[in-house]
Automatic annotation (TrEMBL):
Stretches that traverse the bilayer: 46-64, 126-149, 164-186, 253-279, 351-372, 732-755, 767-788
Enzyme class: translocase
Signal peptide location: 1-22
Major localization listed first in the record, in broad terms: membrane
Protein's name according to its UniProt entry: ABC-type xenobiotic transporter
Species classification: Eukaryota, Viridiplantae, Streptophyta, Embryophyta, Tracheophyta
PROSITE patterns (UniProt xref): ABC_TM1F (PS50929), ABC_TRANSPORTER_1 (PS00211), ABC_TRANSPORTER_2 (PS50893)
Family note: Belongs to the ABC transporter superfamily. ABCC family. Conjugate transporter (TC 3.A.1.208) subfamily.
Recorded topology in the membrane: Multi-pass membrane protein
Residue ranges of every copy of the ABC transporter domain listed in the record: 424-653, 1047-1282
GO molecular function list: ABC-type xenobiotic transporter activity; ATP binding; ATP hydrolysis activity
Length: 1295
């Protein structure tokens, strides 16, 4: 007793002394940009703690004290202890992995990941095993102490010294049990955390090295899952592993104790116990199967969810929300089927666990009575019951440990398969040996193929030699292999034969822009130090200076995930600026001018390619003479024109598109030069402004991507009530609670009957055992009812929350997706929903159960020795205080952890999408380092949460042990005969369970408080403001609407947020029926916003749009969007077959689909596929189709819909001139009587329009026929002249 009081006193003193130290904990925050080398934060106190501090977890005091005074913020969290850093963990793992690979162990033999982990972490697990072993010995010895105490109470010759010696032994045992268990739990989770970090980093490193074949096999969603689910699971793996073997040992030792106490009488009972254990095996197998199937179904759902969230704009424009929602719901139904099966199997398992001790004890007593192996007195009976209680823990947990270990095994296999997958061959490209010849890129007899198994290679007979400083344009129609040629230079496409040599560093600009979330400045600097002059030159060269002024925060504007709040042109120019700033030797530009207007393209070409990169080697892909993956012609521009071949045809197609322009008069060209000078002067002013801004590090105000919201402090009962309110599960909750109360009452009644009946002289053993068995069996019925109702409650809640969350997300306005990173929504759809599915329902009942048991134990102890209630109540009060003190910090730790996990996953997903760019720039190492920081930031919270949990449990155990020791002391001191021996046994057997029950209660209460945060987070997204309704019943337009297609804009004003500046500033005009209207304007003039307004992706601040006299803001969104067609700026395809991509709603016949495909030039391609329309030939986001082909798919969708109004949003930006001409022709023929609105970057696309609308900074500058505008000195004629100048300027390229 004195020892535990000493422990209590010391921890209290530590608490007192901690307040001073609490101040040291706040340093630079986790939210600081990772790109700057921020000073190291102080690491957790464990690194400098003394022996006693480590033993009692007192090194946590400063943090807990700080957390009690104020809600913890990320700045207060210390950094991870050096020996727990991810870098160290990974380097150890990587050495072991490499040595295993070097030994040539085949993956068939055994799982290499597991072997590497075992090799690294075996030693530190010996200490954990020793702790677990001593804890097991202590637990098994406790029933023997009960035997000794009851024997002592029963003996005639009492010696107080013996009594006190027994008490000292009890104190010793409890102390050993408490300390070894706490340190085993903590050390196993800490070691698990190191394994987790090592595997997360290994998976991330692997995706940086994965070849194109490997990327085909593992989508970015799956890779994120390997990190988020499989590697993450390792945090608990060691705990389960050590539990598994130590509980088995506990079972064996308890069996020995039973035989020691009751001899042969124990035999029939043990056979029964063994049977119960064996019955658990099929359950474990069923559970494992359910778990595996659940994981497969969950993978599928998350893959779909991720794809849908990334393409939400297209889905909303086409009004396909319902169809895609059904797709996700059907995935969830599949997942739910396995979840229900798993939960109900668990419920039956629970019934078995609780039944077994009851039946087994009855059988043992019966065995004793029949075999007369031991007298049925108080000491025997209560020792047997206490031993069986010690045995029930292993019987209950071993199957769970087995299933957890099986889950981990599945994860090990998945990781193993991934880590052994095909890597990029670094030796495909020779990076030196060309300098002497002045050659930068040299490909000889190159043959390349994306899929090595196909007969026809993607690129063949490639002979290419590029001298230093040359500018080379790569031209050709859609799907000719232009981008593949750049990938060949990068080494991304598998080489079949030939040689590739490249000298110098590379900068690469991909066709589909890849932007990281962060600021614009971070994206341009891309990890390089800031050099103001070079930075400003890069911004000017890429025509970003104007845009910088337009952004509220200049170049410190936060970019949403995947650059969602930027226009296509801005993303492309930021990519270009990143390349220019990188100052590399070789520039590979994959059609960088496709997403920008002609004027900007001209500026980019002159300033960027000709000026900034004049000393550099540039390979520029444009859509203009590659055929079927061969280089057909090489030569200078004029030379190729003379030959009059394929190149001539391409140029003619381009010129046909251009010569519709009346030639600009000399005056307008003169004006153009003058305007150029004016622009120079304006640009200087802009540059100065940017220079000033560079000095500042942050500009306050509202960014688009907000910090993730999290509640702070104690949120009270709200999330708990939300859980039942949303799921309407009150009835089930009360049924569960009643089931638990019934169970405890009957359990107590059965043991009380034993204590009471032993004192009745003439009672037969049959009667004694019979009554006990009947009461106990009744209690098992209650426990079954409780388990079933709990499972149903959980399932009901899962269903309700999932449907609420999915509905809310699909009904959210577009602004929500623009300002919310996909990772945030996905975290809620994956890990938070997982907590809701598996943890919360059982956590609820595991809080109710021990609370009821604790009450019962205190009532019984008080009934036997009333004095104990004084200490017990004091201990309970102190427990509550300690618990609340701990929870103040624990809650915030878990909440902050909620916001550190998402960045780890986001970063992995982002890397997966941009891996080609990352490798091309040679920044793999920097991304890897950043990822290590993110993993550490996440790991330190796991580490501190566990340490805090052990801190509180150690203190609570100490307090409850005081109650136990008081009870034991009273039983020693009370004179013989004062209390019946049966009641001594009863009281002590309940007192021994006190600590365990209280700890169980605290642990689950804290788990529940932490898990309920997931309810809070999902609920946050269930209350997103909805966009207007899909259908307004009393305002449905006639089915023939719009029959004409006349569009009136009346004083239309648009802003994206309530207090944001206007983007369209009062536009009024009319698009007459059947006219072709071209919308032109420089980047950022409001062209795309106009389209968003037409589709009501954003609601007008004032003014309105009338289509055929109907105000579109009054009708339902679905009614509006189904009647408008659009070919969007970024062509989007979905994973699956050709048919669902063209007709997701399934409303058109095969015949109609084939006709549409024929018109949009895809028929021959698709006819060659094995299953034609039903070929699952579209991979994630349509990556295996070229951008041009994807654009043709979008055209196919429009041809099927046949609406009166068609919008082309910069649709021809990614297509060569020949394909462009085809599309324009098809649209002219097929939509002759429709209103066609074209948002154009290339002036020729609108020059033959009936009307042209010119926008500038949100104002309508001109609206007239193009021929009339060309005759005057109009804004439009200047745009045309600029386009001409830029076209003429591109002809001095070598081809």
């Amino acid at each position: 007793m004195d020892l535990s009081l000493l422990l209590l006193l010391c921890s209290w003193m530590n608490l007192r002394s901690s307040s001073v130290a609490a101040q040291d904990c706040s340093e630079a925050g986790l939210s600081d940009p990772l790109l700057t080398k921020n000073p190291r934060k102080e690491s957790a106190r464990l690194a400098t703690a003394g022996f006693f501090s480590i033993l009692s977890f007192s090194w946590m005091n400063p943090l807990l004290s700080l957390g009690f005074k104020k809600p913890l913020s990320p700045q207060d969290i210390p950094s991870v202890v050096p020996e727990d850093e991810a870098e160290l963990a990974y380097s150890k793992f990587s050495q072991a992995w490499d040595s295993l690979l070097a030994e040539g162990s085949s993956s068939k033999e055994r799982n290499l990941v597991f072997r590497a982990v075992a090799k690294v972490y075996f030693k530190e697990n010996i200490f954990i095993a020793v702790c677990a072993f001593f804890r097991t010995l202590a637990v098994v010895s406790l029933p023997l102490m009960l035997y000794v105490f009851v024997d002592y109470a029963n003996s005639d010759h009492r010696d107080l010294r013996n009594g006190f010696f027994n008490l000292a032994c009890l104190v010793m045992l409890k102390l050993v049990e408490s300390l070894t268990m706490r340190h085993w739990y903590f050390a196993s989770r800490r070691s698990g955390m190191r394994i987790r970090s090592a595997l997360m980093v290994a998976a991330y490193k692997k995706q940086l090295k994965l070849s194109s074949l490997g990327r085909k096999r593992h989508s970015s969603g799956e890779i994120v899952n390997y990190i988020a689910v499989d590697a993450y699971r390792m945090g608990e793996f060691l705990w389960w592993f050590h539990s598994g073997w130590s509980l088995t040992l506990q079972l064996l030792l308890s069996t020995a104790v039973l035989f020691g106490v009751v001899g042969a009488g124990a035999f029939p009972g043990l056979i029964l116990l063994l049977l119960c254990g064996l019955l658990n095996l099929p359950f474990a197998k069923m559970l494992q199967n359910c778990q595996t199937q659940f994981m497969i179904a969950q993978d599928k759902r998350l893959r779909s969810t991720s794809e849908i969230l990334n393409s939400m704009k297209v889905i909303k424009l086409q009004s396909w929300e319902d169809e895609f929602k059904k797709k996700i719901e059907s995935c969830r139904d599949d997942e739910f089927k396995w979840l229900a099966k798993a939960q109900l199997t668990k419920a039956f398992g629970t019934f078995l666990y609780w039944m077994s001790p009851t039946i087994v004890s009855s059988v043992i007593f019966l065995g004793c009575a029949l075999l007369k192996s031991a007298p049925l007195n108080a000491s025997t009976i209560f020792t047997v019951l206490a031993t069986l209680r010690v045995m029930s823990e292993p019987v209950r947990l071993i199957p769970e440990a087995i299933s957890a270990i099986i889950q981990v095994n599945v994860s090990f296999d998945r990781l193993n398969k991934f880590l052994l997958d095909d890597e990029l061959k670094m030796d495909e490209i020779e990076r030196s040996g060309l300098e002497a010849y002045g050659t930068t890129v040299d490909i000889q007899a190159g043959k390349f193929s994306w899929d090595p198994e196909t007969k026809i290679p993607t690129l063949r007979n490639i002979h290419l030699e590029i001298k230093h400083g040359q500018k080379v344009a790569v031209c050709g129609p859609v799907g000719a292999g232009k981008s593949s040629l750049l990938h060949a230079v990068l080494g991304e496409i598998p080489k079949v034969s030939g040689t590739v040599k490249v000298s110098g560093s590379i900068a690469y600009v991909s066709q589909t822009s890849w932007i990281q979330s962060g600021t614009i400045r971070d994206n341009i600097l891309y990890g390089k130090p800031m050099e103001a002059r070079r930075y400003i030159d890069a911004i000017k060269a890429c025509a970003l200076d104007k845009d910088m002024n337009g952004f509220g925060h200049g170049d410190l504007t936060e970019i949403g995930q995947r650059g969602i709040n930027l226009s296509g042109g801005q993303k492309q120019r930021i990519q270009l600026a990143r390349a220019v700033y990188a100052d590399a030797d070789v520039y590979l530009l994959d059609d960088p001018f496709s997403a920008v207007d002609a004027h900007t393209a001209g500026v980019l070409f002159h300033k960027c390619v000709e000026d900034s990169l004049k000393e550099k080697t540039v390979i520029l892909v444009t859509h203009q003479v590659m055929e079927e993956g061969r280089i057909t012609q090489l030569g200078k521009y004029e030379g190729l024109l003379m030959m009059g071949t394929a190149f001539q045809q391409l140029v003619n197609a381009h010129n046909d598109a251009v010569t519709v322009l009346p030639l600009a008069s000399n005056e307008s060209l003169g004006d153009l030069r003058k305007e150029g000078r004016d622009r120079e002067i304006r640009n200087m002013a802009v540059v100065e402004k940017i220079e000033e801004d560079i000095e500042k590090t942050d500009i306050p105000g509202v960014q688009l991507t907000q910090e993730e919201e999290k509640e702070s402090g104690y949120v009270g009962l709200k999330p708990f009530l939300d859980y039942f309110r949303v799921s309407r599960g009150w009835c089930l909750l009360w049924s569960s609670v009643l089931g638990q109360v019934g169970f405890v009452v009957f359990q107590a009644a059965s043991t009380y009957w034993l204590a009471f009946a032993i004192g009745i002289p003439n009672l037969t053993n049959t009667m004694l055992i019979g009554v006990y068995s009947i009461i106990s069996t009744l209690s098992a019925g209650f426990v079954y009812a409780r388990a079933i109702t709990t499972a149903h409650l959980g399932l009901k809640a899962s269903k309700a929350f999932f449907s609420g969350f999915t509905n809310a997300v699909f009904k959210a306005p577009m602004l929500f997706f623009d300002s919310t990173p996909v990772g945030r929504i996905l975290t809620r759809a994956s890990s938070d929903l997982n907590v809701l599915d598996f943890d919360i329902p059982f956590a609820f009942i595991f809080v109710v159960a021990p609370a009821v048991e604790l009450t019962a134990a205190l009532i019984i102890m008080t009934y036997v020795t009333w004095q104990v209630i004084i200490i017990a109540l004091l201990a309970l009060a102190a427990t509550k205080v300690v618990q609340d003190y701990y929870l103040a910090s624990a809650r915030e730790l878990i909440r902050i952890n909620g916001t550190t996990k998402a960045p780890v996953m986001n970063y992995a997903a982002e890397t997966s999408l941009g891996v080609v760019t990352i490798r091309a720039f040679g920044t793999v190492e920097r991304f890897f380092k950043n990822y290590l920081h993110l993993v550490d930031a996440d790991a330190v919270l796991f580490f501190l949460s566990n340490a805090a949990m052990e801190w509180v449990i150690l203190r609570i155990e100490t307090l409850q042990n005081v109650t136990l020791f008081t009870c034991a002391l009273l039983l020693i001191l009370i004179p013989k005969g004062y209390i019946a021996p049966g009641l001594v046994g009863l009281s002590l057997s309940y007192a021994l369970t006190l600590t365990q029950t209280q700890v169980f209660l605290t642990r689950w209460y804290c788990t529940l408080s932490n898990s309920i945060i997931s309810v809070e987070r999902i609920k946050q997204y269930m209350n997103i403001p909805e966009e207007p309704p899909a259908i307004v019943d009393d305002r449905r337009p006639p089915s023939s609407w719009p029959s004409n297609g006349t569009i009136h804009l009346q004083e239309l004003k648009i802003r994206y947020r309530p207090n944001a500046p206007l983007v369209l500033k009062g536009i009024s005009c009319t698009f007459r029926e059947g006219t072709r209207v071209g919308v032109v304007g420089r980047t950022g003039s409001g062209k795309s916003t106009l389209i968003s307004a037409l589709f009501r992706l954003v609601e007008p601040a004032s003014g309105c749009i009338l289509i055929d006299g109907i105000d579109i803001s009054k009708i339902g969104l679905k009614d509006l969007r189904m009647k408008l067609s659009i070919i969007p700026q970024e062509p989007t395809l979905f994973r699956g077959c050709i048919r669902t991509n063209l007709d997701p709603l399934g409303v058109y016949s095969d015949d109609e689909i084939w006709k549409a495909l024929e018109k949009c030039q895809l028929k021959t391609t698709i006819s060659n596929l094995p299953n034609k329309l039903d070929s699952s030939e579209v991979s994630d986001e349509g990556e295996n189709w070229s951008v041009g082909q994807r654009q043709l798919f979008c055209l196919g969708r429009v041809l099927l819909k046949r609406n009166k109004i068609l919008v082309l949003d910069e649709a021809t930006a990614s297509i060569d001139s020949a394909t462009d001409a085809i599309i324009q022709r098809i649209i002219r023929e097929e939509f002759a009587d429709c209103t066609v609105i074209t948002v154009a970057h290339r002036v020729p696309t609108v020059i033959d329009s009936d009307m042209v609308m010119v926008l500038s900074f949100g104002d309508l500058v001109e609206y007239n026929e193009p021929s009339k505008l060309m005759e005057t000195d109009s804004y439009f004629s200047k745009l045309v002249a600029e386009y001409w100048a830029s076209c003429r300027g591109t002809q001095n390229l070598q081809l």
